[in-house]
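Standup notes, structure subgroup. Blocker cleared on the zinc ion input:
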Amino acid sequence: MGLNVSPDTALVLFSGGQDSTVCLGWALQRFARVETVGFDYGQRHRVELEVRPRILAEMKSLDAGWAARLGNDHVLPLQTLGAVSETALTRDTEIAMAEHGLPNTFVPGRNLVFLAFAGALAYRRGARRLVAGMCETDYSGYPDCRDDTIKAMQLALSLGMDRRIVIDTPLMWIDKAGTFALAEDIGGKKFLDIVIAETHSCYLGDRSRRHDWGYGCGECPACRLRAEGYARFVGRREKRD
Ligand code: ZN
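Run returned:
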């Protein structure tokens, strides 16, 4: 599975979630060498970090070209980010809407921190491209997922390191249903099955309950988004066929 493969090296921000896994497939289709980076910041859904190696192994076994192009996986400890964040993602509190109109799962500036560290690592690894799963369409309004924020970060990294860095965000303008559809376009049903069965979205880290859209508590905002997206994806596919 590969289009016209560019000689560039890409570093994919890979959390073990649905979005970043689809982004990884997208990058493996396009770039000669692909490395991955994950962040350990004391997130409650640490199970994310545990599913990463299995996803990587399954993606390698899916396609020989992908196996040849997939390089090092890096996990960076960022506990300091958790220490300065008073949020439901890093503390054992109820997920709810906060006064500023954002859910209290919002870790202020999280993606800015991730992109800065990923940029530094990309520099060291000779990667010109960062690939990340930020999306404006059906997120919870996180301002660090917006296209303007990412473009500003791309400019800041390129200027600050005096090297052209491109941040690719293949999911920016599609919704969750579109992300499932993109997975199927990239790697067929087998890749879609990996995305459903192996990736993790649930904020509560629940992997004991299996639904048609994957594992999760089924109640938290991340599970609801994923379940609704999957239902819309199935609905669109039925209409098309
Ligand atoms: Zn959940």
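Discussed briefly. The chain has a mean pLDDT of 89.
Next: hand off to the docking folks.
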